[in-house]
Design goal:
The chain is of the alpha+beta class and 196 residues long. The chain has a three-stranded antiparallel sheet.
Length: 196
């Protein structure tokens, strides 16, 4: 068992070591290499196209994308590519949810086959429709570093999307009630708007 002076000496040595380490780390910070400058990103205070008229509604799918580059042409390509990618994701998400509800409400017998075929049809329709540049609105901003930021809002009419899906579905012999599906789709879009 340790005696009283040994315990005091142990505590004294422990505190001394802690103080020396603290002083050494503080000194190392002051004399060490220059701190690495972190890359900072400017927050856009007034992001364009935030109002309701630039968002998806029951008549149109709309998405926003931005691209930044030293060359305006490349910034525009990036912005359109990003908007197109978001459009594809948005459509697929909303339409897949709607088709599952459609299948459940209509009592289609081979549900999984219908959903799989619909997914393939949707991919084909999106690939065709998104080839076009359906720019609803655009804005170019010259940044302080002389680069350009290109903002674009892409738009696709819901009716064109539904017509394209209807033609392809009927072409492969699947029963598809465009009106009923359109109502379910509108419900999903309204639900999406409420979540925003």
């Amino acid at each position: 068992m340790l005696n009283q002076p040994a315990i005091k000496q142990f505590i004294f040595i422990g505190f001394s070591v802690i103080l020396l380490l603290s002083a050494w780390t503080c000194k190392a910070k002051k004399q060490g290499a220059k701190p690495v400058k972190k890359k900072t990103f400017a927050l856009v205070k007034n992001t364009p196209f935030n109002s309701k008229e630039y968002k998806t509604d029951t008549a149109n799918f709309r998405t926003r994308g931005a691209g930044n580059n030293a060359l305006l042409e490349d910034a525009k390509k990036l912005g359109l590519k990003n908007a197109r990618s978001v459009m594809d994701t948005l459509q697929q998400t909303i339409l897949k949810i709607a088709v599952v509800k459609y299948v459940n409400q209509t009592g289609i017998k081979d549900e999984q086959n219908f959903i799989n075929t619909f997914d393939l049809t949707l991919k084909e329709v999106n690939d065709e429709l998104l080839k076009n540049e359906n720019v609803f609105a655009e804005k170019i901003v010259k940044e302080s570093n002389n680069s350009y930021t290109y903002w674009a809002v892409m738009e696709l009419s819901k009716h064109i999307v539904l017509d394209s899906i209807d033609k392809k579905q009927n072409g492969i012999g699947l029963a598809f009630d465009k009106v009923k599906f359109g109502k379910i789709l509108n419900e999903e879009i309204l639900e999406l708007e409420l979540k925003k």
